[in-house]
Amino acid sequence: TQRMSIMKLSKDIFRREGVAGFFRGYSTYVLTSIPSHSLYYGAYEYSKDRITAAYKERGYEINEYRRFWINIVAGCVADVTSCIAANPGDIVGQRMMVATHYRTPGLFDATADHPPRP
To answer: How far apart are CA 1 and CA 97, in angstroms?
Structure first.
């Protein structure tokens, strides 16, 4: 395969598909990112509250050191939760973005089984 520079590839996309070519798969990004980000913030706040409550129930003071680690753990829980929820949409979006053997007209068509063109 031929290697292309970013500029050369950008020009090729624009020549073949116009401006719309730069946004192939964008609909899945939007449809996936809104619920995913909402889930992230909900999971973060919930995890932070539950961890803080667990420390307080055991009689620990919530100092800056513990608050730092509570935020780190809550962020990790939120990120994993969000990624699990967003992954199927991301896969569909990536398929739409990089598919060269068929033209994907829309989100739901990307999930269908498309045989490669001869």
So the answer is: 19
